[in-house]
Predict the 3D structure of the following.
Amino acid sequence: MGDFDCQRIRNICILAHVDHGKTTLADHLIASYGGGVLHPKQAGRLRFLDYLDEEQRRAITMKSSSIALQYKHHFVNLIDSPGHMDFCSEVSTAARLSDGALVLVDVVEGIHIQTHAVLRQAWIEKLTPCLVLNKIDRLICELKLSPMEAYNRLQKILHEVNGIMSAYKSEKYLSDVDSMLAGSSGEVGDESQEFIEDDEEDTFQPHKGNVAFVCALDGWGFGIGEFAGFYASKLGASTSALLKALWGPRYYNPKTKMIVGKKGISGGNKARPMFVQFVLEPLWQVYQAVLEADGDKGVLEKVIKSFNLSIPLRELQNKDPKVVLQAVLSRWLPLSDNILSMVVKCIPNPITAQSLRITRLLPKREVIHDEIDSGVLAEAELVRKSVEACDISPEAPCVAFVSKMFAFPSKMLPQRGLHGEVLNNSTDDNGSGESDECFLAFARIFSGVVRSGQRIFVLSALYDPLNQEWMQKHVQEAELHSLYLMMGQGLKPVASAKAGNVVAIRGLGQHILKSATLSSTKNCWPFSSMVFQVSPTLKVAIEPSDPADMIALMKGLRLLNHADPFVEVTVSSRGEHVLAAAGEVHLERCIKDLKERFAKVSLEVSPPLVSYKETIEGEAFHPLENLKFLSGSSGYIERATQNGRCIVRVQVMKLPPALTKVLDESSDLLVGIIGGKSGHVDKSLENKRTSIVKGENPIEALKKRITDAIESDISSGSAEIDKEKCRTWWEKFLKRIWALGPRQVGPNILLSPYSKGKTTDCSVLVRGSPYVSERLGFVGLSTDGDVASEMSSVETTDALYREAESLENSVVSGFQLATAAGPLCEEPMWGLAFVVEAYISSTVGQQNASETSHHQQPEHYGILTGQVMTAVKDACRAAVLQKKPRLVEAMYFCELNTPTEYLGSMYAVLARRRARVLKEEMQEGSPLFTVHAYVPVAESFGFADELRRWTSGASSALLVFSHWEVLSEDPFFVPKTEEELEEFGDGSSVPPNTARKLIDAVRRRKGLPVEEKVVQHATKQRTLARKAKGLGHTVKTSKELKFVKDIAEVTGAVLAPCLQTLGSPLPKVILSQRDMKPHSNDITLKGCFFLVEAVLEKFTMGFSLTVFSGMPIMVASYQGMAA
């Protein structure tokens, strides 16, 4: 390929909400320009790119797959992606390899949560989007809208999508303004200038050619350019003028033959916009002519004649109107031609696209080293320029990015090469020759030429070319065994591929786990990491049914972790193999792959392992009092080590929710700041930051977010609080951050002690150091001047100070252990600040006054550092228990769509799941309601199935992780006030609340003791059976026997054998509960017995029973029977 050929390449992905028509659209593009792999008659029904059995069974796409198309001398790499939120990681992998995106929107269902997600993904990856409004036929056939109503609906959807894109542009515009104001005045970058000019108009405009109106199922679609060209000669107007006039408030005046605005029309309200008059009305007339019995068949003939359509007579005479419609419209407005012409026109080629995307793919690095190799830096910059220019010359450095690894059956690899030679496919990519799967890399070449058999370097996301001696574990050298052009499920071997192409590479299975950068030189920065919209939150523990299959399971888990870009496989502290997935559908697919492809063993899957957090009751009304409380000397929990040498005092306070959220979201950033080495921070964080503006110091950005969170909390407080004092106290606190926890980066803070010096009983305080505050820039480097003054004391030896200093790590370790496992159910703590004061003394307490010498005590009680660690952990947990502990649970944001008649059933399902409804609104022009709600993750399992069951499949739900929320219920509630004592008595009748139930469930799963009553009443069980009358009653008459049999028929029960004939005594058990009908679930075994017994007694006494247990029992048949 030459440079001209590279300009004819287009790399696109199809993005949309689930069931909006992505794979159906791809089918028609493949059928027209896929080289004959799919017959046009099968397009839209076969779903060619959904080749997995699970995809065909569920009728949804679960992975991103690519195929190469050839359209009018252009080479189009098409990547289909999933629309389900569980597989959003596949959307990220598809977006990274593409230059543009086709964003599909169902015109009936409108904008959904996943539509927002894919538009944001396209924005983050700097893709050029085109909008495809799909399922136009549903406006005609299902909603029965008029052309004017349909136009208003299309206009509303277009306006909403443009509003979403404008929000993203505004976000970047504001950040650009901030960076320009922070920098030197008057300097405006090229990117900012280009953005400011582009902000003057909407992203999607039909006259720009980047909006298409289609019906993918029937294979037709159009942009307004097709109609503008057709009407230009008829109306005597230029094509460019019609392009602008065919969308928006433009009207055609037939008298003057001019295009006028709304003020220039004379027809009043009856005037129709040109899009309605010249585009939608002819389309509506074709549908009415075919679908209606009295339709005007002359319309079809007029269309066929006007556009010289060649349609076989058998298709026009078909009795199925859908076949006739598809035959006419697919030839009049061919879908593939219109979509691909829009792609070629609006989506840039790789050369142009990579120059636009370079700031996202390879952002410029700020080098803060003084001693660096200028040659390495120059070559790294040369590589970046080659990627920016999409250099395809043989001398250019070869650079590619692997977005994911995917498993491919070894037996399906091509057996012959380009020239018919037999290929050697026996090379093992997995490190074990027993696997039937071969791992291929899904890659895009950004610079140079990649050849089969080439040696190349594999760079991880943490690789730093300026410190290669420290980065050996982040770089490997590999050989590329084979290159393939992907054709859906099939592969076509190629000898080489130039920059701008999407290929599958074999030979990297041992070197890449998820994603990586490939480079022909070590002096190359790795590509920035991909951004995923959600995280894997659904966890289950798995084990083989047969313990002998454990080795096969571990091997299968390794293969699954390799093949799925989003799954996480870990081993818990209890030794369980834990599988984390994005949702129920994703988890089911992973389990199925394990059983049938990778492990091939029978598995036992645990119930979902739901994560919780532990915190204390919020005291938001007096934040200043809380801050002063931590600085005081009261309200602390005190613990002592076993040998009595160390006294630990702990105080705890709840952090503001905004600050907790910032610390939790910035965990990846904090790993590099707190755990990184000086001088390496900025570069190691470059790949991790997602919301930080380009060129901004990540440490300064995080520091600003923390101070903004505290400021927002102070501003939202009541007017009675002295806000200046609050700010002063917070400034002091931010200078005392000793550590974060758990795992050094959690949302809990350990503050260094406020008081300094020694106490009167010759003890020394373990002072700690504001290490985190120094790393975040809240304070400068600490000095030891005050320590020297303390060490001059005569009463305390130097050894005691050194011992106190050596115990600092023990205090931090105890804090980490406490925050990793709280007191309620050993779940991590959430949003708490601790002050730990540990006093170490040189003398042993009076209780240890024995003959045991001082040097023998460590042997008896254990090492002092371990004792301090245990004491700090116990004191922190006890402090939390003292402060009204609360459970924090994860919440899903749920978007539901349901018809009006099923709203009641949907709300009943939500109520059973402890959901909180946020809003409900009716979709304009459709019978559907859209409901937004928060659903606890613990209650979400089986939610979609129950919703479908109760609404007869009419409702759909989409769940995405939202936030953590504190359960307001006290798990240790005991009646104390007069009202509570009046309602619950002494507390024995208090039902267990939700928080306590969740805590007990987690404790049982972890094997922790649970406080529960095993025996409710220690007396003999009481029976409800009546022994005085009825027992032994004999069925005497045929009427009585018929009544008993009818009762059995109504309740769906089975009569005991002794009740089949006259004269049978009435036994204790007369009915069996087998085959009970749904409406009689409230009638128990004893209930059926008493029912028949009571009715037979009424027969004898001359009465009739009409209702029993709230259920009418054949009243009309037995009224007055006894008489």
Summary: The longest strand covers residues 885-899. The mean pLDDT is 77. The two ends are 102 Å apart (CA to CA).
